[in-house]
Amino acid sequence: METLQERKEGQVAKSIEKQTSKIPSDIFLWSAIGTAAVATGLHCAGKKKDGLFVGLLVAPILIVGLYNKLVKVKGHDKNDK
After folding, report:
1. What is the arithmetic mean of pLDDT over 24-42?
2. Is residue 8 a contact partner of residue 79, using CB atoms and an 8 Å limit?
3. Residues 43, 10: contact at Cβ < 8 Å?
4. Which residue has the higher pLDDT, 54 or 68?
5. Residues near 44 by Cβ (< 8 Å), separated by ≥ 6?
6. pLDDT at 3
7. Potential cystine with 51: which of 14, 43, 46, 69 (Cβ 3.0-4.6 Å)?
8. CA angle, 72 as apex, 58 and 64 as ends, to 5°?
9. Would you say residue 2 has pLDDT above 70?
């Protein structure tokens, strides 16, 4: 069985972590709030399908923000350094 010390991050994961760790966590939260506001505005303006489409972007933005936070807390794979 593989131990934690034997696990390595792939190159794609390393490059994503390297880039996302540079972005402040607040950016993702405010982007999600702004996106929800735009979606609500579109819905109220009668563009219900457009509002729904934009509203669907809120969850992925928050998920990427969560990933960003986890990368900052846990860091990169310590064995690769």
Report:
1. 95
2. yes
3. no
4. 54
5. 51
6. 57
7. 43
8. 15
9. no
- Give me 17's structure tokens: 């972590």
28, two tokens: 């993702």
How confident is the model over 44-66, as pLDDT tens digits?
Answer: 999 999 999 999 999 999 998 98
The pTM of the full predicted model, rounded to 2 decimals, is 0.72
Measured CA to CA in angstroms, residue 53 lies from 16, 20, 42 at distances of 26, 25, 10
Which tokens go with 70? Answer: 């986890």
In whole angstroms, what is the distance from residue 63 CA to residue 78 CA?
24
- The helix/strand/coil state of 10 is coil
For residues 1 and 34, the answer to whether their CB atoms sit within 8 Å is no
- Helices then strands, each counted (H, E), the chain: 4, 0
For 43, residues 6+ apart whose C-beta sits below 8 A from its C-beta are 51, 52, 55
Positive or negative: CA dihedral 22, 28, 34, 38: positive
